[in-house]
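Request from the bench team (R.T.):
"We need a structural guess for the complex before ordering more retinal. Sequence and SMILES attached. Just send the tokens back."

Command: build protein-retinal structure.
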Amino acid sequence: MTLTKLLKGLVPVGLLTALPSSAFAAANLASDDFVGISFWLISMAMLSATIFFLWEVQNVEGKWKTSLVVGALVCFIAAVHYFYMRDVWVATGETPTVYRYIDWLLTVPLQMIEFYLILAAIGLASAGMFWRLLIGTMVMLVAGFMGEAGYINAMVGFVIGILGWFYILYEIFAGDAGKQAGQASPAVQSAFGNMRLVVTIGWAIYPLGYVLGYFVMVDASGATTAAASQTLNVVYNLADIVNKLAFCLLVWYAATSDNKNLNPASA
Ligand SMILES: *C/C=C(C)/C=C/C=C(C)/C=C/C1=C(C)CCCC1(C)C
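Reply to R.T.: structure attached below.
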């Protein structure tokens, strides 16, 4: 192993030592608190994924390196937020809405950047496309936060959030981004196609959690119940596993299959 490789290997170690001490202070995680346990498990999965993607950066072609680093950042930011969210949940039994949305506000735009990078790697991306994806993301998340935190009516926040999501779907299927992908190499095309599926099917899990937590599992007065908070958090946690880990693994898979396929005609 060369010195540079060794030094690169130190990056994950450095990130680990920078983790907040709260990561290690599991405030009485009860053995029957399955929501709390799911927060803990996902913390570990996100942490491991961070190290994995950073390590794999050295094994892919230059044009894919930034995509893998961005994937590692997504998992790292999520890992730190999961430590804090678990703590809020275990200490109060309440939904950690603020940490949840700060996490999403940072990681979803990073994932939009992934779309852009995948296409930019082969010179097919436009700046306008990136900004449109970002605006759709912001509308979706700010409306969702205001609805969940009680700044606006939960239904109004939900409807505006859905519109933001539909706008993203329009952009990646019928808009510029979708059209550009048609001209890309097979590895990029399959990455783009799979990532689109994640944004369509994987992302649909989030509004489902919102509907269960705020509209379905409510008591007679319309107030949310303890069961609703449990369901909301389990569904969001599951969605994050699919949409962060699976999404980044798809990028990694495309990057490694592009390496094997060094045919210049397809690059
Ligand atoms: C890593 C985190 C991700 C990929 C989070 C994605 C979040 C969403 C797709 C949220 C969507 C929502 C709607 C479509 C309607 C309103 C409520 C939201 C914010 C839960």
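Two things stood out. Residues 226-260 form the longest helix (35 residues). The radius of gyration is 19 Å.
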